C-alpha cells in the first residue's frame, strides 16, 4: 500500500486461507511494543523471550500463527522444564506468549488465543534473601573508596532499580532535603524517592573528590573510564564487594528488596512504599508484607503477654 509521500507500508493481514506467517507476526508484535513507548530494556526482554518462542514453534513445523494450538503451548512449557529452567524464567516465557497471543487476536490474526485454555505456569512464591544490618555494615567496611561506600548507602536508602540508579545525574539529587528525582524509569514514569542524612553525607564525601559537579554530570562515574557507571559495571562492582565482605547475594536487586523489607518492618505504609519503589500494583509488595507479618507473628509467639506472663 503506497502513501502520498511515496513510502510503501507493509501490512500484515490474514489471507483468504487464514495464513499469518509466524516470523512477520512476531515482527509486528515487537513493532507494536516499540510504538507503545516501551523502554529499550523492556523491548530487549520481549525480543529475547519471543525470539526463542518463535524458534521453538518453527522447529515444531509451525510456520503460521493460525497453526498454534493449546497443546503446542503445553509442549513448550514441558520443553522448558526439561531444560531445567527456573520457575520464574518459565513464567516469563508464558507472560510474553500470552501478551503475544492477545495481540494477535486484537489484530485479527487469530480468532481465539491458544492461551485461553492453558493455565499459566506456577509462579514461585519465595522471595530471595534481603540484607541484614550486619551485612550492610560488612559491605561498608569492605569498600575501598568513598564512591563505593556512597553507592552502598544510596542504593539501599533510595530503593532504585539498577538502571535508574546509574542514570542519575548530580542535579537529580537535592542534597539539602534528600529528594531524588527519577526520570523515565521502568514504564517511563517519573517519580521521586529520598535519601536520608547518612546516605547524603556519604554522597557529599564522594562528590567532594570530583572535579566535574555540574548538574548534568553523571552522579556515578566509572573509576576506569571516568564515564557514567553502567548497570553492568555496578553489578560487577557489587559482586566484587560482596566477595571481599563475605556477603552473599550482593547485587542491585538485593538492595531494592532490603529497602522494601526494612521500610515495612519500620512501619512504612505499603501504599507509600509502592510510590517510592515505582510499582504499578501491590502484587510484589504483598509478598514482602507477608514476610513482615510472619515477623510479627513470631514476635508475638515469643513475647505475647498472656502466653509468656501468665
Question: If you had to describe this structure to a student in words, what would you say it looks like?
Answer:
The termini are far apart. The longest helix is centred in the last third of the chain and has 21 residues. With 310 residues, the protein is mostly helical. The chain folds into two domains: 96 residues, DNA polymerase, domain 1 (Orthogonal Bundle); 170 residues, hpI Integrase, Chain A, CATH 1.10.443.10. A two-stranded antiparallel ribbon has the order 1-2. β1 and β2 form a beta hairpin. The N terminus is likely disordered. α1 packs antiparallel against α2, α2 packs across α4 and α5 packs antiparallel against α6. The chain is 55% helix and 3% strand.
Amino acid at each position: 500500500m503506497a502513501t502520498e509521500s511515496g513510502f510503501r507500508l507493509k501490512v500484515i493481514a490474514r489471507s483468504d486461507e487464514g495464513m499469518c506467517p509466524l516470523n512477520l507476526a512476531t515482527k509486528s508484535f515487537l513493532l507494536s511494543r516499540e510504538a507503545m513507548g516501551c523502554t529499550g530494556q523492556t523491548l530487549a526482554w520481549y525480543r529475547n523471550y519471543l525470539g526463542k518462542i518463535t524458534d521453538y514453534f518453527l522447529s515444531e513445523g509451525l510456520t503460521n500463527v493460525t497453526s498454534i494450538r493449546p497443546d503446542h503451548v503445553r509442549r513448550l512449557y514441558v520443553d522448558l522444564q526439561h531444560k531445567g529452567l527456573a520457575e520464574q524464567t518459565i513464567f516469563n516465557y508464558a507472560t510474553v506468549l500470552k501478551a503475544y497471543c492477545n495481540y494477535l487476536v486484537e489484530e485479527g490474526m487469530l480468532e481465539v488465543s491458544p492461551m485461553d485454555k492453558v493455565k499459566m505456569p506456577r509462579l514461585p512464591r519465595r522471595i530471595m534473601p534481603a540484607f541484614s544490618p550486619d551485612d550492610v555494615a560488612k559491605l561498608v567496611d569492605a569498600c575501598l573508596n568513598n564512591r563505593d561506600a556512597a553507592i552502598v548507602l544510596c542504593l539501599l536508602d533510595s530503593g532504585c532499580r539498577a538502571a535508574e540508579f546509574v542514570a542519575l545525574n548530580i542535579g537529580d539529587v537535592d542534597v539539602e532535603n534528600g529528594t531524588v528525582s527519577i526520570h523515565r524509569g521502568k514504564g517511563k514514569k517519573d517519580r521521586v524517592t529520598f535519601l536520608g542524612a547518612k546516605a547524603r553525607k556519604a554522597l557529599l564525601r564522594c562528590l567532594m573528590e570530583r572535579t566535574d559537579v555540574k548538574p548534568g554530570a553523571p552522579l556515578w562515574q566509572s573509576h576506569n573510564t571516568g564515564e557514567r557507571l553502567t548497570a553492568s559495571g555496578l553489578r560487577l562492582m557489587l559482586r566484587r564487594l560482596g566477595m571481599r565482605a563475605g556477603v552473599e547475594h550482593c547485587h542491585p536487586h538485593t538492595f531494592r528488596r532490603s529497602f522494601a523489607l526494612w521500610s515495612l518492618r519500620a512501619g512504612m505504609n505499603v501504599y507509600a512504599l509502592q510510590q517510592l519503589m515505582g510499582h504499578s500494583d501491590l502484587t510484589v509488595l504483598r509478598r514482602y508484607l507477608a514476610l513482615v507479618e510472619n515477623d510479627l507473628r513470631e514476635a508475638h509467639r515469643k513475647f505475647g503477654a498472656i502466653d509468656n506472663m501468665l
